[in-house]
Amino acid sequence: MQRFYGSVLLIVMTPAVLLMNVYAWSGLQPFATDLTRVGGFPEEDFGWSGIEYKFAEPPVPYIKGEGVYEAYTDIVVFGDSFSQRKDSSWISHFVNATGLSAQVMHYDQGGIERVVDTDLYRTRPPRVVIFEILERMLLKTFRKEPVECRLSDPGVLLPADFEPLEIPLVEYLRDTNRRYGDYKLAAKIIRNRLLLLAGQEEKIKPRIAKLTADTLFSHRKSGKLLYFKGDLEKREWPENLSSKIRCGLERIRQQTEANSYTAFAVMLVPDKLSIYSPWLVDSSKANLTLLDDRILTTIPHSLDIRTMAAREVEHGFVDFYLPGDTHWSSKGDRQVAQWMVELFRANSELNQQGSGE
Questions:
Q1: pLDDT of res. 3
Q2: How far apart (Å, rounded) are the C-alpha atoms in residues 155 and 212?
Q3: How many angstroms separate the CA atoms of 214 and 265, rounded?
Q4: pLDDT score at 12
Q5: What is the pLDDT of residue 98?
Q6: Are the C-beta atoms of residues 151 and 342 closer than 8 Å to each other?
């Protein structure tokens, strides 16, 4: 009997072992982006091509986790991974374009009190606090806020007295050198393909959506969009969430600007699915964003990234978001930084016009 079961096990295991060895030794490109790595999608299919840019040494000091405001910088960013990537984030490009110093804290590791309740904030506050948050995190962050609140005009204007640092960028290419004998890499890709073949897409966090155009990205399967399944959760969001977000941001702004010196700016980062909605074949996945709600588009000192990024993509911007990632490309980061610079300058010009009148 033991010999029989041993034979059955050998028969079952042999194809699996052979398949693993075939994949592992066929030569696979290493994962370079978060969606391919998490979902086991091959970089050969979804890896970006062309040139990206980064700073050899980012011109930004970073504070992560549960840090507090204990070292002066002109800008304090309350943000997430869009702001905390050291090699090339929008804030790095913003600092390079303005010469303003900055630090980044994660909003999920403590409230704005980590800044406004410190001794340094009382004696030497930053000139601007920027709240940056990814769209799909809005419910988690603001669900407990009130629906109604008193809204007021911003009390502090954004500064525009800055000069660029002009630190050069370094070009780099994605590592496409093949890995041989990497069984961990092979196992992820095999699992992905087996689940897709079995029709069990729900067990994979990244998802694929078909596009009506193949000119939006630089990857090999450019007619397909790789996105995170959390982008779909907005279907179930409460209708009053926009009001809660507006009230939550108003509360933070009033705390920040209470000293009549520090300005408050907002950056609501659209989900990848939100930006590429106009090109989705499946319309049921399109236009789930709430960033177009009027109550959010009227937030003072807020950057309307969703509208501007969609327009750039429509006009031929390739890889605003990286094909295999939830984040912007370095070119997208640089564009967003430029929009923020323009927001600062426009606010200052309005102030000067008002003073002249």
A1: 52
A2: 45
A3: 35
A4: 45
A5: 95
A6: no
Q: Is the pLDDT of residue 248 over 90?
A: yes
When pLDDT is averaged across residues 272-301 and rounded to a whole number, the result is 95
7 pLDDT more than 80: no
Q: Is the Cβ–Cβ distance between 102 and 75 less than 8 Å?
A: yes
User: Which pair of structure tokens corresponds to residue 116?
Assistant: 């406004």
The amino acid at residue 121 is Y
Residues 6+ positions from 152 with CB-CB distance below 8 Å = 250, 254
User: Can you give 88-132 as a three-state secondary structure string?
Assistant: CCHHHHHHHHHCCCEEEEEHHHCCCHHHHCCHHHHHCCCCEEEEE
The strand pair at 75-79 and 102-106 is best described as: parallel
Contact 102, 76 (CB under 8 A): yes
- pTM for this structure? 0.90
Would you say how long the chain is, in residues?
A: 357
- Burial of residue 312 (CB within 10 Å: 0-12, 13-18, 19+) is middle
**H-type helices in the chain, by residue range?**
2-26, 34-39, 43-46, 81-84, 90-98, 113-116, 119-123, 138-142, 183-197, 241-256, 272-275, 294-297, 305-314, 330-356
Q: Has residue 136 got a pLDDT over 70? A: yes
Distance set, CA 123 to CA 70, 77, 95, 259 (Å): 11, 19, 23, 10
The helix, strand and coil proportions of the chain, stated in percent and rounded to the nearest 5, come to 45, 15, 40
Helix, strand, or coil (residue 227)? strand
Region of 138 (left: φ > 0; alpha: ψ -120 to 50; beta: rest) is alpha
Distance CA 215, CA 87 (A): 27
* The amino acid at 62: Y
Instruction: Evaluate whether 179 touches 185 at the Cβ level (below 8 Å).
Output: yes
Question: pLDDT tens-digit profile of 183-203?
Answer: 888 888 888 888 888 888 888
